[in-house]
Amino acid sequence: MLPFLKSPPSRVFIVLALGFISLVAGTLAIGKTATDSGLADAVSRNARNWAQYMVANVTDLEPIALGERPSPASMAFFEGAKRSGQVFRYEIYSPAGYSQFVMDRDRIALVDGPEFNPDAARAGKTGQPILEAMDGTGPEFPSYFGRAYIPVTVDGRPIAIVAASIDATEQRAIADKALSQVFITLFLLMAISGGVPGLALYFRTKQKQQADRRIRFLAHHDALTGLANRAQLIDELTAALAGLAANGDGLAVHFLDIDHFKGVNDNLGHDGGDFLLQTIAERLRAATRPGDVVSRLGGDEFVLMQTGVSSKEQVEEFTHRLTSAIAQPIRFKEQEIIATVSVGVALAPADGTTPERLLKSADLALYKSKSDGRNCVRFFTPDMDVELLKRITLERAIRDAVAHDGFELHFQPLFEVSNRRLLGFEALLRLRGADGVFIPPMTLIPIAEEIRLIDRISAWVLKEACRTAATWPDHLTVAVNLSPSQFATGSISELVATTLGETGLAAHRLELEITETLLLGNSVATLAELAKLKAMGVVIVMDDFGTGYSSLSYLWRFPFDKIKIDRSFVQGLGESGRNAETVIKTIIALGRELDMNVIVEGVETAKQAAFLDAADGDQVQGFYFGHPVPASEVAAEILAHRPRRDEGVVPGLTRAK
Ligand code: C2E
Ligand code: CA
Ligand code: CA
């Protein structure tokens, strides 16, 4: 095939042009046939008229047809006819079709040896005129002429056949000229009506092909960075894995996720986010060798396929190169961004021999890298599969519990240190796993936060705790743990007010425990919510005090009612070289100064309890004093710690619902 025919737009154009040409040619042919037949008709009829004219003027036709000379009158007629110019030949035939007389441009004569003419004979035989028009051949004929054979009868008896031939060259020329003008007009019209849209179609097709090429590219590449996309990566992985056995080398899949990418987007806008992604894409590309594949799976996730891997050290060295390339500062509109990534690495064939399995292994390793604090590299290990399965099971258990009211609350008692009086209970979330064993809240709550179910769970805890506490004697309190996310979404003070209203619990009987992380952001809105709660009469407790950050500073930020010293301090009591004792004593003294109650939790032994007595702590909580128990066992707990009459308080006990 001609090379240009291979290019589809030219093919389309050629097809169009051929179509156009055949259309014009077809029209031309039809037009010519129509003109030809019209012309032939007119010309032969003209010949017939001339023949009839002869019949009307030559009175001695019969004798002439028998071979006699025409009369002088007839000769005069023929002379005149000859000069007229249009008839170039008159002939007279015998009824059988033999020519007897001819008049043409240079003679008027009888025919020497009569010649048979089949057309004339046929006209004589049928009694019908024969009309024809044709192109002349040879010097004696004009280039186009018409001829008519007319049988002449007298009383039904044929006496002669006369023939007139007329020169129609000029008419033919006029008709041809007219026809060609029509054709030219037609051609132009068609060229305009067909050619313009044809050209438009040509360019459109060309455009469409460019778009198709772009779509094909995009189907395999990421639009923002031009890197391979997931489909392309899978293709490349499949091909590379198929070649593994042959060359003996391995390959590595690096799964990268930009740390805190959302923050970049929030702070620098989407332009900034896009710029970061493009820059990282560029750096990854620059770090690779031919045969490696860099892809973006969407969002801030990149996957890099490293080929020709012969050792784990080589992969580690490569990952190091990648992460340090990414960590170079990036300038965006006068701002400097320093990006870090979490990386999960899987090796083939060890960690998978299909693209899906390898990607999953690398993803699990990435998950580990993120949960280990981000900005680090983790290689896949088989136990990650087990972790993932656990995680999936947990998520399902949480979703089920939310849907089917599967959570429970346990209540752990709180006592006054000085007289061991029961003050109330802390409500603790419990969820039984499929094996009947409780899933620890410390495992459950972070996942519930991640899958955005924490708010629903927290609302349930609050309501259930208040509802239960409302059945207890009036002097007993209930403490509920709040999660920071409850302050991020919606108004916690409204929820608390509604819940107190619905359950009928007095506000001062509700204690809300928050942790330092809540105050980390130092958000005005959070402090305002806390102030509203306090104004309602709810008790606000700083939980896990001493574990987190510059704890003391938080005490100035909000007038807490209570500080709960983290149980790690109690557990550190008596350990040599640790200053747990001093810390606890200091916090207790500080609480006195700030007019905040201090509660020590996690007291497990008599020795620890004795220390607290000596340290003059306010309140205490721990296994030594009482384990968390289901709501149904709270009544027994209350009875067991019923205050003695001489203390003057005899609380009545309402039955738990
Ligand atoms: P937390 O607020 O510090 O709750 C006290 C935890 O210490 C409870 O663990 C309790 O069972 C445990 N504990 C009590 N006495 C002792 C003791 O003498 N020794 C030891 N080793 N531990 C003791 P639990 O129930 O496993 O809860 C763990 C954490 O989960 C809680 O720590 C709290 O931060 C969170 N949590 C529990 N329930 C909820 C809830 O309803 N909402 C929220 N947001 N968090 C909750
Ligand atoms: Ca607590
Ligand atoms: Ca605590």
What does this entry look like structurally?
With 657 residues, the chain is α/β, with parallel strands linked by helices. It is built from 22 helices and 23 strands. The model is unreliable at 1-5 and 645-657 (pLDDT under 50). It binds ligand C2E and calcium ion (CA) (2 copies). The site of ligand C2E has 23 residues, from strand 15, helix 12, helix 13 and strand 19.
Which key features would you list for this structure?
single chain, 8-stranded mixed beta barrel, alpha/beta, disordered C terminus, 6-stranded antiparallel sheet, binds ligand C2E, 52% helix, disordered N terminus, 23 strands, 22 helices, 657 residues, binds calcium ion
Give a brief rundown of this model.
The protein is an alpha/beta fold. Mean pLDDT is 88; it is low at 1-5 and 645-657. Ligand C2E binds at residues 412, 428-429, 440-442, 445, 458, 461, 481-483, 513, 543-544, 567, 601-604, 622-623, 628.
